[in-house]
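User: quick one, sequence for these tokens?
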């Protein structure tokens, strides 16, 4: 699913499991990747689980949020570095074009 070419191989349609047949039935024409269905199943803790509350998020979201709080200083440093790199590159490109 990660290496799928979007226009050549479109994602499957948004679907839910039908209680009577046990098969996935399309809900709408909107196309959703497989990881979306996995996220919904994990958030609802399997079939027939309670609907997720507005504040409930998957566990890996919280883990990633913790990483972001730990690595924010490196993120700022890299953004400043990219700013200086682009500024110097733009200056050198303008001088080269003269």
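Assistant:
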């Amino acid at each position: 699913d990660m290496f799928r070419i979007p226009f050549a191989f479109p994602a499957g349609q948004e679907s839910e499991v039908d209680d009577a047949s046990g098969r996935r039935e399309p809900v709408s024409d909107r196309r959703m990747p497989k990881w979306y269905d996995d996220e919904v199943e994990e958030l609802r803790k399997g079939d027939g689980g309670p609907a997720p509350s507005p504040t409930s998020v998957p566990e890996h979201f919280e883990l990633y949020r913790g990483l972001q709080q730990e690595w924010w200083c490196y993120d700022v440093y890299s953004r400043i570095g990219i700013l200086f790199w682009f500024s110097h590159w733009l200056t050198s490109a303008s001088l080269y074009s003269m």
